[in-house]
Amino acid sequence: MKKILLSLFFAFFVCAAFSQAILVTPNDTFVSNLPLVNFMDQVTEEGFVINNTNSADSIFWYVSDINHPVDWEMSVCDKVSCYIIYQTGELHKFDIASHGQDLLHFLCTPNCAAGDGMIELTMWLKSDSAGTVVRPRYLATYTGVCGTGINEAANENIRVFPAHFSSYITVEGIETASIKSIKLLNINGACVHETCVVSGNTITIETATLSAGIYFMRLEAADGTASRKLIKD
After folding, report:
1. How far is CA 17 from CA 73, 76, 102, 139, 196, in A?
2. Number of Cα atoms under 13 Å in the Cβ half of residue 18
3. 213-221 and 179-186 as β-strands: parallel, antiparallel, unpaired?
4. Which domains does the chain have, with CATH numbers?
5. pLDDT digits (tens, 9 = 90+) for 13-34
6. Percent of the chain residues past pLDDT 90, beyond the cut
7. Comparison of pLDDT for 33 and 36, the residue scoring more
8. Which residues contact 170 (CB under 8 A, 6 or more apart)?
């Protein structure tokens, strides 16, 4: 069990059977190392935000730093929603009742891409006039080798364009890579479009109704997945 102390009566507990209790004071950084064994492991480290005061409060948090291989997915879930994180700075908030507790957890899936990943949160209490924060930092490493991803030659033949799109996205090389499903995710990880491929080497997806912003396309085949980052202007 690891404990991060935000104030005298507010604590963030991270459950980890392999470690002893560690107290992290405000404005300090807590680091947790997560093992990744299999290419599709979804490693989760859970914690609880606990309010032991006699008043309700709000917790503010945002991702202050993130770095990982492009095919990885790193997510943070609070009591409001789960967010697949691709960029820093977006502010989130959830309310917590007097003498209540709410789950907060981190998830990571390497999707067969070897490498190191890191994500750091900055958290503070709305009622904390001093603005003291804690910065939980989660580190993960995947070193396994697997043959279950889309092979390199097929991946190179996949073309997704335009990278800065407006009313449509075209995907080429579908039959070459044996792609069976195409999903378009928004910045929060919600699927805004899904296409099941029946036949053909090219598909055009209508996107006129989508809001401007960053999107991620996931191309799923029988032997693995590939990802592409896209931006709607």
Report:
1. 24, 20, 20, 17, 41
2. 5
3. antiparallel
4. 2-142 (2.60.40.10), 152-232 (2.60.40.3080)
5. 444 433 334 445 555 666 666 6
6. 13
7. 33
8. 159, 160, 161, 202, 203, 204, 205
Token pair listed for 103:
């789950």
Helix, strand counts (H, E) of the chain: 1, 20
Residue 143 and residue 113: Cα distance in Å, rounded?
A: 8
pLDDT digits (tens, 9 = 90+) for 103-119: 777 777 776 677 888 88
Place of tokens 């792609």: 179
- Quick check: helix, strand or coil at residue 87? coil
Residue 71 region by backbone torsions, left for phi larger than 0, else alpha for psi between -120 and 50, else beta: alpha
Residue 136: name the closest of 9, 42, 16, 8 by CA.
16
CB atoms within 10 A of CB 203: 15
- Spell out the residues 6+ positions from residue 2 whose beta carbon is closer than 8 angstroms to its own: 13, 14, 16, 19, 21, 22, 24, 30, 32, 47
